Amino acid sequence: MRSVLLGGLLGLLALAATVPRQSAHADHYPCHVPNYGFGFDTYEYEDYVTVYNHMIELAAAGLAVPPPYRLPSGEWVDVSYPGLETGPRNARQPRSHEATVPPSLYKAMVWVESGWAHAGGSVPYGGVGPVLVAIDCGYGLGQITTGMGHLASPPALDIRVPSARQAMIGTHPLFNLAEGVRIFADKWNSAPEFRPVAGNGDPAALEDWYYAVWSYNGFAFINHPLNPNRNPLRGEVWHCNDPNAPGFGTFTWGDYTYQEKVYGCVRYPPVPKGQSYPPPLAPGGPDQPPSSPSLAVGDTAVVRADGQCLNVRPAPAANPPLTCLPEETRVTIVGGPQELDGITWWQVTNGQVTGWSAGQYLVKVQPPPAADAPVNPAGRMWPPLEVAMPSLSVPAVAAAFAPAAYSECADRGFAGGCAAMDFPTTIPELGITPHTDPTPAPAPPLAGAFLGAPKLQVIGERAVTLQVTASSSTAASLTVRNLGTGIGPFRVRTSAAWLVVRHPNDPPGRVVDGGVAIGKDLPVVVSTSPRSVQAGLDSVLEIRINPALLPQGATGGTVLIEPLLGTLQPVTITVTVQRSGSASGPPQFPFRRILPNVTAEGSP
User: Fold this and answer.
1) Cα separation of 516 and 169, whole Å?
2) How far apart are CA 180 and CA 118, in angstroms?
3) Is the predicted pLDDT of residue 18 greater than 70, yes or no?
4) pLDDT above 90 covers what percent of the chain?
5) pLDDT in tens, 464-500
6) Does 396 have pLDDT greater than 50?
7) Which residues contact 375 (CB under 8 A, 6 or more apart)?
């Protein structure tokens, strides 16, 4: 494990302060005015822990998706695994598909990227709805940005039409994960030409992936371990929100580099959302965890409210609240407990406000365990693994992470691979050796189960007439149904920007560029309150005209629905425009999308 001498570290930090600071960035930004990414629908598995574990294991082994295939349009869909180069800088071996990505490493990365969610926050687990899209237009589980731009062809088919490959990454979680692993493998393979080499370049060694992990988030100085904006006392790795891990309650997300976050979640894997973390293992008895700590007057606690703030009230259950404390705020217990309305209330203070808060959102801050203490695996989403972070007390490692080594490499555009940043991950005299991932190899037939055999049917007229005024238009309905099994992804293409396809109840401004129809073999949650589940789900769409974009003289256009997996038979709907007189009042379909500090007009 990393052992950092504080004096030496502070000296290195003094050097780091001389390196120009860079803002965080991804390798590719696909979001540009006037568009803010594509409108993709997806399916979010309800048993996400089991399913996404299996999917990531398949993707990491290069077994998740079919070989590259061609659509009737002539486009290729290819997110295939590229294989890995192996070996140190001076003895690099060609790519091999036998060399694979450690699945636990990519599981941790997906947790850091998306919290294991492929759909947006409005979509329940088990439901269908818009894909999760970040502010930089990272899509889905792997927050894929590379290759997802829409201002050029390629990668997009057109400025407003995604390629089939982009649509698959946005709509289907298995293809999204396969693409994320492909990108991760490419980051690994960029050494030694454009990246340094960690250790002996052994893909079986978790520690040898250090620079590839860094590069997945962008090989920028913001993720350098000696970035002066990072607290030098933060410890080895992020606690991954485990209340029993070192640093919890003291250091937060922003204190850590991307690599420290990912390796932290390898070391301290999360628990399923809404579940409690297991207690730490008792010293000397790894199978005998102590009883869960309870709060008492005098304890220090931290707010854990699932990303929300915690109300502090003048008395138990009393309104209005005095304040609302942000997630991870430290408080001191000064009174209580009191039981009221089925809630245990504690009197807390943060030094500025004193009041009463619900105890279930307060976690007692424990004395930090030793960094190499065994981690209780009970209830976690994947087994915890030991990892050894770069030991800056070792001269060869300290030299590799000297800020000047990074600066010199960045000045050359990373050409030549930054040999001065190569560092050893095996140091026998200090007992430092790499660790491996013991996750069993996945069963290849699982991929077929997740891919299913979709067979899409488009229900609706193949020729429609839409009436349009100066401010509105009529709509034509169509339904995409999956007569087969699994997730049935499809792309929507219109011949002109003034033709819009959307769901009947979509908010203004949203269009559907790619969707899914779910086979009856998959349960779909259609309501959470009351809970309602049905077998499969159709995609119900409507075609409209945006009058603001309709040019003079336009008389018609086409809408193309293209299945992207399974039975690949596209369907074309011909649209005839019938103009009416002007209408007063506000437009029914204003096509306005508002983001913070940005307002854009036009069909997104």
Assistant:
1) 12
2) 12
3) no
4) 74
5) 999 999 999 999 999 999 999 999 999 999 999 999 9
6) yes
7) 245, 267, 268, 281, 384
**What digits encode the pLDDT tens for the residues 573-585?**
999 999 986 443 3
Cβ neighbours for 384, distance < 8 A, ≥ 6 positions apart: 266, 267, 268, 269, 375, 377
Torsion, CA 421, CA 426, CA 432, CA 434, rounded to 10: 100
Does the global pTM surpass 0.90? no
Neighbours of 152 (CB within 10 A): 10
**CB within 8 A of 123, min separation 6: which ones?**
42, 44, 129, 130
pLDDT of residue 167: 97
Quick check: 503 and 511 in contact, CB under 8 A? no
CA atoms of 229 and 20, how far apart (whole Å): 12
Number of CB atoms found within 10 A of residue 506's CB? 16
Q: In what order do the strands lie in the sheet with 343-349?
A: 354-358, 343-349, 330-340, 300-303, 362-364
Q: What is the pLDDT of residues 541-567, one digit of tens each?
A: 999 999 999 999 899 999 999 999 999
For the chain, helix, strand, coil in percent to 5 are: 20, 25, 55
Instruction: Indicate whether 13 pLDDT > 90.
Output: no
Element (H, E) at 262: helix 258-267
Could you report the per-residue pLDDT of 169-205, keeping only the tens digit for each? 999 999 999 999 999 999 999 999 999 999 999 999 9
Of 441, 104, 425, the C-alpha closest to 264 is: 104
Quick one: tokens of 50?
């089991």
For residue 14, name the pLDDT band (cuts at 50, 70, 90).
Answer: very low
Exposure string over 329-349, b if 16+ CB within 10 A, otherwise e: bebebeebbeeeeebbbbbbe
Q: How many Cβ atoms sit within 10 Å of the Cβ of residue 447?
A: 20
CA 420 to chain centre: 32
Instruction: Quote the pLDDT of residue 1.
Output: 38
Give 206-218 pLDDT, tens digit per residue.
Answer: 999 999 999 999 9
Helix axes 103-114, 173-189, angle to 10 degrees: 110
- Classified as helix, coil or strand, 64 is coil
CB neighbours of residue 307 within 10 Å: 9
Higher local confidence (pLDDT), 274 or 518: 518
Alpha-helical regions (H) of 360-456: 395-400, 403-411, 445-451
Q: Are 281 and 376 in contact (CB under 8 A)?
A: yes
Q: Where are the beta strands (DSSP E) in 48-127?
A: 69-70, 76-77, 84-86, 93-96
Instruction: Give the separation between CA 72 and CA 77, rounded to whole angstroms.
Output: 11
- Are the C-beta atoms of 171 and 515 separated by less than 8 Å? yes
**How many helices, marked H, and strands, marked E, lie in the chain?**
10, 25
Rg from Cα positions in the chain: 27
